[in-house]
Amino acid sequence: MGERVRAHDWSATPLGDPGHWPPALRTTVSIVLNSHFPKALVWGPGLVTIYNDAFRPILGAKPEALGRSFRDVWAEAWGSIGPLADRAFAGEATFIEDFPLVVDRNGEPEQVWFTFCYSPVRDESGAVVGMIDTVIETTRTVLAHRTAAELNQRLEAEVEHRTRELMTTQNALRQSQKMEAIGQLAGGIAHDFNNMLAVVISGLNLLQRRLDRGDTNVGAYIDGAMDGAMRAAVLTQRLLAFSRQQPLAPEVLDANGLVRGMEELLTRTLGETIGMEFVTSAGLWAIHADLNQLENVLLNMAVNARDAMPDGGRLTIETANVHVDDAYAAEAAIEPGQYVLIAVSDTGAGMTPEVLAKAFDPFFTTKEVGKGTGLGLSQAFGFARQSGGHVRAYSEVGIGTTFKLYLPRFFGDARKAAPTPLSRTIVSPTGSPREIVLVVEDEERVRNFTVETLRELGYTVLHAFDGPSALELIGGAAADGWGGDPAGAPGGNAPRQDVTLLLTDIVMPGMTGRQLADAARAILPDLKVLYTTGYSRNAVIHNGVLDPGTNFLSKPFAIDQLAAKVRSVLDAPD
């Protein structure tokens, strides 16, 4: 390019004869021509253009630009680059990256992109006399990036579309699995309840036939009907446990003492062919859990282990302090932190991955018909969740199975921990006519049976069908604003009674049992209260845990359960 510059006729340009060019111009031309980077020098008011060989491809098929005005060379784009050139001649260096221009360099307009720098050139006095255009065309790079961006956008749209399809499919699968689980649950409930009802109905039918004939030898039928009814009650409690809605009465427990205290029971349950080992951790943290429910969970696990070892084996129960990290906590949907682990392991047949995946499903069982309900492990799952913990199963075919129960560490006074299962206090089931029990129940049949039972036990019994009616019996004025009709409480109840115990359902139309108890105690501060309900989450239960000090009896209940609970509430110190 240097030869072309020297051979060019500069006399027709504002620069004139190169022999008279000022030092600044000659120096700058030398820099431009010797550079391997595309550069153009724009000089003086006439914007005379001088460029190097590397700049030539930028021009494309444009007419010879050497010595021409930069404005004329890029006339079609001057509206965009002219202001930038003005800034350079004003002494400001300008850097522009991927600057879009429409140029005509190959016979037709085309969209191009340049990254360039306009740098002012000064003479010996410091005046700006020109600018250097250092430039690189980035059209291919920009178009490649745009193509990649468009492709990425299409891919993202495709991924989003496929993701929506996948989510739709997964939702459909989950719904199908849910319906399958509900169907299995409903089928299991119907099967078990029908069997239990068959026992109850058959027993009562035979009882009726015997009594019609004057035959009083009916004890076996009564026992059969009672057994069927109690099994149905146990089934509902297990369903509540699985759904995490059973009422819990947690207390501070020492897990080491609890499992050691179950040794005799477990020994009888497992039989002589199964050995048992306890591996308890020293310094085990206390836990806060429902004693009865935890015992039931461990017993169910032991029974499953026994059934998995028909030819004998070994059952190991271990305890340990563990720390659940964030990763495991997220997977198990629990809070990270400190837990007490109770592990129950057997050397039985083990489970296949397919069976293991369904181990905690309600009514899922691999046992023979009549050998199990399929609710034991689902009850354990519900209990663990409701207690703020987690249960997980590990199993290998031919090696055995381990169930790991994680319960949160109790951070209160561990000295209150019960070291062994608490002994149940035997209380007198009978009452006195001086003890007046007010039964409030909106379900007539339940109310009548409860009233007759308490009268049979020796209590004086009043009854009402709702809260306002009960308050009329206790103190009259407190029922104002609630409506109600004491006449709706049959049985010749007398008003203004000094009631000893309020036995009330919790969930009733209008005034709840909790509201009734609060209003009644405003009249009789020493009134004792015992709540009953077939529900579990209601006015006196917070997250499935009984309020401290609340006396509670779950429906259905047997006569001896009602008798013992009423007696214990009445005999409890104020």
UniProtKB/TrEMBL annotation:
<dbReference type="InterPro" id="IPR035965">
    <property type="entry name" value="PAS-like_dom_sf"/>
</dbReference>
<dbReference type="Pfam" id="PF08448">
    <property type="entry name" value="PAS_4"/>
</dbReference>
<keyword id="KW-0597">Phosphoprotein</keyword>
<protein>
    <recommendedName>
        <fullName>histidine kinase</fullName>
        <ecNumber>2.7.13.3</ecNumber>
    </recommendedName>
</protein>
<dbReference type="InterPro" id="IPR011006">
    <property type="entry name" value="CheY-like_superfamily"/>
</dbReference>
<dbReference type="Pfam" id="PF02518">
    <property type="entry name" value="HATPase_c"/>
</dbReference>
<dbReference type="InterPro" id="IPR005467">
    <property type="entry name" value="His_kinase_dom"/>
</dbReference>
<feature type="modified residue" description="4-aspartylphosphate">
    <location>
        <position position="505"/>
    </location>
</feature>
<dbReference type="InterPro" id="IPR036890">
    <property type="entry name" value="HATPase_C_sf"/>
</dbReference>
<feature type="domain" description="Histidine kinase">
    <location>
        <begin position="188"/>
        <end position="411"/>
    </location>
</feature>
<dbReference type="InterPro" id="IPR003661">
    <property type="entry name" value="HisK_dim/P_dom"/>
</dbReference>
<dbReference type="InterPro" id="IPR004358">
    <property type="entry name" value="Sig_transdc_His_kin-like_C"/>
</dbReference>
<feature type="domain" description="Response regulatory">
    <location>
        <begin position="436"/>
        <end position="570"/>
    </location>
</feature>
<dbReference type="InterPro" id="IPR001789">
    <property type="entry name" value="Sig_transdc_resp-reg_receiver"/>
</dbReference>
<dbReference type="InterPro" id="IPR036097">
    <property type="entry name" value="HisK_dim/P_sf"/>
</dbReference>
<dbReference type="InterPro" id="IPR013656">
    <property type="entry name" value="PAS_4"/>
</dbReference>
<dbReference type="GO" id="GO:0000155">
    <property type="term" value="F:phosphorelay sensor kinase activity"/>
</dbReference>
<dbReference type="Pfam" id="PF00072">
    <property type="entry name" value="Response_reg"/>
</dbReference>
<dbReference type="InterPro" id="IPR003594">
    <property type="entry name" value="HATPase_dom"/>
</dbReference>
